[in-house]
Amino acid sequence: MKHNLLIVLTTLLLLSCNKTTKVNDEVLVRNTNELQNAITQAQPGSTIILANGIWKDAKIKFYGLGTKDAPITLKAETPGEVFIEGQSFLHLGGTHLNVESLYFRNGYSPKSSIIKYMINKDSIANHTRVTNTVIEGFTKPNRSTNDRWVEFYGKHNQLDHCYISGKSNDGETIRVFFTGNEHINNHHQIVNNYFGPRPRKGGPRAETIRVGDSKTRFTPGYVNVSNNYFEACNGEVEIISDKTNYNSFTNNIFYKCEGSLVLRHSNYATVDSNIFIGGDDSDFYGGIRVVNTGHWITNNYFYKIRGEQFRSPLAIMNGIPMTPLNRYKQVVDVVVANNTWIDCKSPFQIGVGQNLASVDVLPKSEIRSAPPIRTTIANNLIYNTKSDKAPLINHDDMSGILFKNNVLDNNANVFSEFNVFQNETIKMKKINNWLYVPETNNKVLDSVFNGYDFERIKNDLFGSSRNDNNKVGAINQLAAAENFKIDKSQYGPDWFSTEIDTTQPNVLKASSNPGELSKLIQQAQPGGIIELTDTEYSVSTSLKIDKDITLRANGENKVEIIYKGKAHTPLFEMHPKGNLKLQNINITGQGNQLTFAPLAENMASAYNLFIEDCSIDNFNYILKASKGSFADSINFKKTVIKNSKNGFVLAADEKGDYNAEMVTFNNCEFNTINQNLIHFYRGGYDESTIGGVLTLSNNLFTNCGKTEKSGLLIKTPGIINVDISDNTFKNNNVKLVALLWGEKNNHHKNNTLINSGEIIVEDQQKLEILY
Amino acid sequence: MKHNLLIVLTTLLLLSCNKTTKVNDEVLVRNTNELQNAITQAQPGSTIILANGIWKDAKIKFYGLGTKDAPITLKAETPGEVFIEGQSFLHLGGTHLNVESLYFRNGYSPKSSIIKYMINKDSIANHTRVTNTVIEGFTKPNRSTNDRWVEFYGKHNQLDHCYISGKSNDGETIRVFFTGNEHINNHHQIVNNYFGPRPRKGGPRAETIRVGDSKTRFTPGYVNVSNNYFEACNGEVEIISDKTNYNSFTNNIFYKCEGSLVLRHSNYATVDSNIFIGGDDSDFYGGIRVVNTGHWITNNYFYKIRGEQFRSPLAIMNGIPMTPLNRYKQVVDVVVANNTWIDCKSPFQIGVGQNLASVDVLPKSEIRSAPPIRTTIANNLIYNTKSDKAPLINHDDMSGILFKNNVLDNNANVFSEFNVFQNETIKMKKINNWLYVPETNNKVLDSVFNGYDFERIKNDLFGSSRNDNNKVGAINQLAAAENFKIDKSQYGPDWFSTEIDTTQPNVLKASSNPGELSKLIQQAQPGGIIELTDTEYSVSTSLKIDKDITLRANGENKVEIIYKGKAHTPLFEMHPKGNLKLQNINITGQGNQLTFAPLAENMASAYNLFIEDCSIDNFNYILKASKGSFADSINFKKTVIKNSKNGFVLAADEKGDYNAEMVTFNNCEFNTINQNLIHFYRGGYDESTIGGVLTLSNNLFTNCGKTEKSGLLIKTPGIINVDISDNTFKNNNVKLVALLWGEKNNHHKNNTLINSGEIIVEDQQKLEILY
């Protein structure tokens, strides 16, 4: 049945018998031919050195049979000076290989992965290591083309001290595969890496690490994810999605990541001594979300995690009774002990995902009606410098949870509901701007958990023993905590710095001479500012925006830009990473063009629009998204938009994806926009992604919707977060201003509706299910 | 939430602090009061001795806190002379307890279990042991009342050297529970026990051992079931039902058990070095049935296992795509290596349970369309002294299985279909009547499974090392195998023998004097024979049959029995264990009575009827089952049944249960039975039980069914095995003779139908699903 595999394996084994001599040869290679030769000739102990410089289109298949004592090494001549660019990848097969100090940039892999611990099913990697390597922005040009950057197969492979950032296309950054006996129980190590920013993707399949899939929820993994630094890993609601058993997530720092560590299809995970740092600047920073069986969540520290529901600091989910394999299993036998939450919003949310209200619009196999059982939440500490209205939110039935010895200092505001907390006053010492440690603290109650294995919790967050004077919360010893600071040098390559120069932005002056504006935009450095010094500018071809750039009037008076380009072309053509700010500019079109539009394809990265104190007049579309394009932020303030056929159309994508994350209009005026005033769309139902945010506040809408066939002024089908507040709608010829989805986070208040239809909230909406 | 538990536990722990002195006291107790006192006063090292004799209604709650070095012991004064009878049980709580040498008989537990490793949720047993103990026929009076005989809770508990037999009521003999963190990872030991006969129950919930349930399919068990002897454990299709992970089943002997070791909801089971001995006398002896993920099935030996489908020697099942938790998961990552099958029928059945043909009558979540994948079947040996038509049956797609180095000696009849076997001639040595060992043998192919962990298979079935000259099949060394014999002394208590005296049956002579027949039946020993010496007997009250007894004519001429009892009473009242044989007797009723009927309730055990060369005339019912009653065998040969309103009604049960296992009519005549000629019924659909067997061969049916409202002569709804062959149906006024269920094992052939309707086969029948 699988004869080919066997023949090849047998051959390889025979070859390997001739290769047991250990050598210490080093060979410097200068091109891929030399490299391939060196790989073929490598023996245990060989070192292959890639010469400094740019290696373009390097399709490296590194197969070798090293030994534990004499691995085969592939490394850069000088760390940081070997650049892998173009269409390149590095796939590994064999055993005991090392790869060191490469830098992937300016390109992408033409395959399903950049680094893959398998060449083909007959050449799987075991005991191999990739270290000290950078992958930066090596993202596929088409955002909707799927790949992973690192694919783990085999057993005992390692990725350490790497820096990885900027994946903006579809697919997890790292995935561990479990496609057979030869890949399970694999003990892979993902340690001491620096996972730099991953932008919001708008939809699922954008985790930073995914371990397995729903079909592997019975499979033992023993994958270890430890001592990594995650910064702004905002791809989707799951930073890490754990889908096999017995994996460990310990001593990681999650710094301002808009997602959670999610125990999605896994069981018996160890989640210990992680630090989650959030802030006031986002409501999306998440903590730990719990599904399934037997997890131990201990010694973790959460600071200003303000996410809600699926992104709660601690989200313990409801399950589906007798769930299908790919859906939510009831939480059973979970232990949450000795964790600390500081200034988090509703740190405990229990029964998250309970959706009995949707029983009429969802199939029975989607109804999460099984609350957590046989779960223990004990010896935790919650401390708030400002009191929290609801430190615990109960979505269903908590009688299956044993709460014991959880101490709450809610800044004098006692929370006694559910009788789950001991309300106390704790004296805290602030060690730095996110770390608070109790100076006095309650002892833990171990003894009552006899038989529950609480003796497993040997040390605290910073490694201090819990043998003596064991305390509630994540930190047992003030002294060790006082010495703690984040040491970025332990994450990522030793030769690579993530520090960014913060220089003053360059300011360029543009006159209205034909072509000058376009030329200056092209010449400007990222972050540059162009001041328009004349009063009126005529533009005849699209302006290409492919970096962070600001256009603003020179003085206080507004400047006029008149767009005379062809029909169907945009004034501002948004390219990947285009980040456009306009201030004090009046824009006028010819009625048949677009004000803003992303490229029709290859929008590898997101674009942004920040428009303030402007006006836009006489276009066919103000903004029209293309399929696969994604705007992270579209933000209009104090801007007038008028006399156009269509407004903002962000409705080109499908199947759970959507075209923009944060869409905000504040203090704007919309006048005589005939149709599609705002059409913001997400197709299909995938409840684990929670995106699309539309905020309309203090705007005036007049005389819009004349030719709107749907009869609906603001169309937001499938968008999860909509807030329409304090707006005035006047003389808009539509049946409805908006049709909101009550069960999701759709709200309206204080709007004035004059001769404009009404706003209706439908609590439940029926959508196509995507999985 | 669970404060009571905590208070009690805390109290117990405080008490335990005062009890650390180790003592060596022994106390003899004579009644339950003294026993209770002794338990209360016991300290580490205490021994409580139960005085010889009968302990009636002993409700023992044995709580104590022993230590590893000084356990607390409860034991019989003399092993085998302490009988626990009446309504009794033994529940254990605390730690390090021993129970030795008790004998449970003549009674039943009034609770859900006899032996339970928990007194209540605050008093769970850990590190306790029950040894050298017998539970024999301690079965609840009502067969449909559910209990278990041994319930495991807590951790590290043991049941060893016990003899357990005769459970005939609903519920597994042993169940291991996993109802919380305090019961998982429990490492319970079930070792060196002798599991004696468990009769066919007729429906599910009659396993001998069940480990967990469908809700625990993610839970690690580490339960060890080793070195046990299972004899005629025929309760249902599953001898053992494994439903948690990482359990071991090793070195057990399954002797003539009509079921299988079933990996039902478990994963990563170790099934090594077990012996399955069947025979030609039953088609129900089973082997190993495989569902789920990651099992290793190695070194097992199968002799004359002739079960089919679910009971195949090796049944690898199809799964349901994205199955609900309580249904069939696809087989993945399973290894079947180094096993031996001797004279088995179709030893490999792959894709068992594939039911795509039922797609119209079953919900989608019942369709097993996912064939096994990533599974390895290698280095096995199949040897047949008579050639087998199909050593492998493929029910679906086998491309996901790697077959390698499986050797077949099919008695010169090459089987090359599917290309999965190496056909060879093996020289075998017959060691005893079931053990065949190769004198020469092929080597295994380890090397091709590099990375597959085949080095795990260190020894063979009899413990010989596989390091040198490793061979295919379960046995690596002829020498060690030659010395093997089953040593029954290592199973069960040392003081208890399972050998049965085989004495000649007693023959009594009964004249027709009033009351004499009834009296002799009462007086006869089990196995006794009563010969009727006169020609005509008048019986006025029911004859009570509560043992194995034969009634037969003295000579060659038939004897007449005329039943003159009240209406609605049976001539033969069948009691539990009633086993009635009639030979050469003509029976006549008054038209309003029953010939045979079990008790209306408390039919704790099955009854049997063997009727040969008789005639039965003029009754209301020939046989009418009561709810909860069960006949193991109903066997009529060369018997005339006539002039009665109803025939055989076995239709009192519901929900997957049924009233008889083997119903056989051979060479009989049915004449003028007006309705319910045969009504044999099983309600509801539970595809994992495969019971109800109706065999009709060479019978003559005349003039029956006159008042049959259903229009159906032979009614068998839900019965899985029906064979109607070589019968003649003449002038029966019905629409249909039978309506058979084609998808199940329902067949008909060579029947002659004259003016009697027809036999129809419906391939698919729609039934209520029970789970």
UniProtKB/TrEMBL annotation, chains A, B:
The keyword DNA-binding does not apply. Keywords: Lyase. GO terms for molecular function: lyase activity. It comes from the Bacteria. It holds the Pfam family Chondroitinas_B. SMART domains: PbH1. This is Alginate lyase. It comes from Winogradskyella endarachnes. The lineage of its organism: Bacteria, Pseudomonadati, Bacteroidota, Flavobacteriia, Flavobacteriales.
